[in-house]
Amino acid sequence: MFLHYDKDEKILNMEESKEIKGLWWLPNASDNQIPGTLNIRNDRIVLETIGSLAEDNPILHFATGKVPQYDVIWGISSEAKEVSLFNSYESMSFNTACPFPVARYSVQVVAIGKHISSLDEVGNYDIKAYFEELPYWFRPNCLHFNMQEQKYTFCVDLNNANHVTVQIDDDCTLSLVGETNISHDKTGMRVEVEQISTLKFAFSNLISMRDAKHKIFVFEQFLSFATLAPVKYKRFLLIDKDKQNDRTKNYTIEIYDEKESTLSKPERFWEYLFVDETIKESFPTIIKRWFTEKDMFPIRAHLIDSVGHKGAFCSTDFLTIIQAIDGFYCRFRKDGIGLKQILSNLKEELKEISILEISDYDIDCIRDSRHYYSHLLPPGKKQNVVDGHELYELNHKLRKLLLCCILNFIGFNNNEINMIFSKSHNSYLRMISGKEREIKDKEPIIINGEILAVTQKTEVVPE
What we know:
The protein is α+β, with helices and mostly antiparallel strands. The chain has helices at residues 58-64, 134-137, 209-227, 283-292, 297-307, 315-332, 339-349, 360-375, 388-409, 414-422, 449-456, and strands spanning 2-5, 18-26, 29-40, 45-50, 69-77, 82-93, 102-112, 122-123, 125-130, 143-148, 151-156, 163-169, 172-184, 191-203, 207-208, 235-240, 252-257. It is globular, with a radius of gyration of 26 Å. The protein has 3 domains: 18-112, Thrombin, subunit H (Beta Barrel), CATH 2.40.10; 120-270, no CATH class; 294-460, no CATH class. 29% of the residues lie in helices and 28% in strands. α5 runs antiparallel to α6, α6 packs parallel to α9 and α7 runs antiparallel to α8 (360-375). It has a 6-stranded antiparallel β-barrel. Strands 8-15 form a two-stranded antiparallel sheet. The chain has a two-stranded antiparallel ribbon with strand order 10-11.
């Protein structure tokens, strides 16, 4: 429930870049400060300097083919902000006609606002993180519009902005908060108002940047599962609580991280598996378990990747989903039983969930097809092997089964899982058997009725 007034700063889009000019040096060699420019994009971070940070002869690096690596580089920007660069790799550019070398450093992590000696250095920090998908998943509900004839009313209501707080453990509290950004141009003639949702963590103990990145990564995985698409944070802030009450000091440290670009479209929220409004009552329990369930940590990324949209299908996708279900059952149910029995047991356990379509014959086909594709068996070795579109349909049924397994594990019962599916227009949940999937008319988020009508057609369109 915060109003930010900012005429300059914007969260980076993939097409935008942030450029920082300054002096750069190694922490143990502050007398060798060289000029350079740091360019930050979501998909890459590069520092280019005139001269090398290393005191030894850079020609030796070039001749031997060794790539200098630096755990941390410090800098001071032209705006007098301290900057820390982590895990940097150097490459050199030589021109024999030029009296100085140009060095380029590929950087993994940037911290703007403080000199930090390592990712493990602790401080008295809280966290604020920004995601493109979060405002669509957790609606800010800050802006309200009304039009009556010639009277148009626009209102920013911060008192009733969306907000939820959950105590994750004894030392950490998670909050999702609806906020508003207001910006304008230099003339004041153009004003932009943007609703955003912010993820916040408050800590009662000291944390490091590595601790902060881990907390955000766990929430990234949760949001990736909820949206059925890869989610990456755009940036996050470390709030230095030791300086927060001193207006003469900057208390925010901006963190940017090199990350792979994604093709997800966050505005297609009707394709999400569920949104905040769908699970509002269960959210505190579910998110707490998501963060504290240790047995899920090692395999969670694999399970989420297994149920996500791929855009194309091949037999290895079928093997991946089978492996994920097999591993899930052996880890969280019972080890040492065969695949056919695993699928039969899960079918019985989840039989109340309406979108599951696995039959006894499907189970025989899944077992034989797995052996066939895993071991490259000769044709005819297994009786119930399928391929082509039949294999794709089996894969689709198995992915829905794995979705139900994950939802059940994080705390939803079968009736709640049915409710989630009935409120989701995700085309991934379509039925293959010919029967229509129940979709409730009342949506958790009110959107244009025509859009809802279009999304319902995706029931019969393959992904």
